[in-house]
User: Fold this.
Amino acid sequence: MEAVNIEDLKGLFPLSLEAKAITPHLNRAIWDYNHVEFEDEIQQVEVIGSKAFYYLAPLLWVDMQDRVNEYEESLETFKDVKTFQSYWLDRSNSALNKTNNDETDEVSYLCI
Assistant:
């Protein structure tokens, strides 16, 4: 599988930050999961991408506050940076710990 890249992150959340600001945080998220064998690229992008957003949260938070009108819905949903970080960390954990329900053939996500 190819490594998760910045374009993959943009598929999860709109990014206006420059690549040089994103890259170290993405690399840290990739490093965090270098021991994990993902089921497929979708799970890999979801897990690593969400963890990258966890690390990027302080930068994204400042960016969102600077452009409040554009991100009004996000600011309403995420009252503070910790809530924003928790959302992305929970999303990463749920994608990593997903279970397959054979009876319904649906994929469930477990939040830890």
Q: What stands out?
A: The chain has one domain: 6-108. Residues 6-108 form one domain. The CA atoms of residues 98 and 109 lie 4 Å apart.
